[in-house]
Specification:
Strand content: 25-35%
Number of helices: 11
Oligomer: single chain
CATH architecture of the largest domain: 3-Layer(aba) Sandwich
Low-confidence stretches: none
Bound molecules: adenosine-5'-diphosphate, magnesium ion
Order of helices and strands: EEEHEEHEHHHHEHEHEEHHHEEEE
Number of domains: 2
Mean pLDDT: 91
Radius of gyration: 22 Å
Shape: globular
Helix content: 25-40%
Strand order of the largest sheet: 6-7-8-3-9-10-12-11
CATH topology of the largest domain: Rossmann fold
Structural class: alpha/beta
Number of strands: 14
Distance between the termini: 45 Å
Length: 342
Amino acid sequence: MSNAPLLEVKDLRKYYEVKSFLKAPKAVKALDGVSFSLARGKTLAVVGESGCGKSTLAKTLMLIEEPTSGEVFLEGKAMSALPAADWRKSVQMIFQDPYSSLNPRKKALDIIAEPLVIAGGLSKDEIYDRARKMMQKVGLRPEFEQRYPHMFSGGQRQRLGIARALMLQPKVLICDEPVSALDVSIQAQVLNLLMDLQDEFQLSYLFISHDLSIVRHIADDVLVMYLGQIMEKGPRDRVFANPQHPYTRALLASHPDLTAMKGPRATLEGELPSPLNPPLGCPFQGRCPYVMLVCRDIRPPLYEVDGRRSACHLHAPDLKAGEASGSKPEIARRDGILTASL
Ligand SMILES: Nc1ncnc2c1ncn2[C@@H]1O[C@H](COP(=O)(O)OP(=O)(O)O)[C@@H](O)[C@H]1O
Ligand SMILES: [Mg+2]
């Protein structure tokens, strides 16, 4: 199986214009230059605090929101050039709260069958036959066919949402916090189901989650976002074992069980700045223990460092030793790689 990217996102931006009385409209930069790729059969986890743009990314990929600029490619075909119905055959989504996305007046089997009914081209018998098989695949018993969504438990409802999303045989499944509304014991069951289905159908997952223990469990690659921008992206093991961006380090600092990261652990302090008024330069400057003058003015590029990318000026090859210290906590740095803070 080729590892060429199935989904490719290039410099994606989504600015929401926000109008307020007697004031000039302002832009919320919900996505501000996001690029990544996702290979077939792999899971890319998107992490970051509330408001960093995760759901906007999902909505843009689902054609719910139109990007301000940038492009998304599926097997080399541009999202903007494909008819929406074709795109949706390949890219489907499951939600945090499946209840709000399932029609309360429809029965389970009809809910699962509906995407194929809308797509047309198959006989009713064929469609319902496939829907029954899909119900079984996601672990819903045949006697649930005629039940309405409210008669299911949270975990069963998520199974229903998964079955519906898979009926068009998509290649990409976008999962926006798919288990965060479920009890921990049920979370594991649904995650195991998702992993089994991924193997069986060679699905690619864009898995949005704020739960880093789940991310470490299921992700192949990790994308760390902050204020609409990518702070760090790379293979899961690299990112967890030795996070490079100060923001990732702070996120992981409160999870000693998940990382072998050395040194004192500066935890995340201060508030997320308003996306209406993002600072010039690095978005993380206001909360970063290592902030330097350059961070105030210049947005750091995504440096290639230790097998992943990290958008921090500390990785700059021409950074002088003194610039990174001062009265602030020191960070050990060799060849641009952050090893530990003293
Ligand atoms: N329709 C909208 N109009 C204006 N601002 C929005 C809209 N949707 C989202 N935003 C803003 O965009 C930013 C990113 O939101 P979102 O993608 O929902 O973040 P997340 O899912 O990571 O919590 C937030 O500041 C949010 O307030
Ligand atoms: Mg969200």
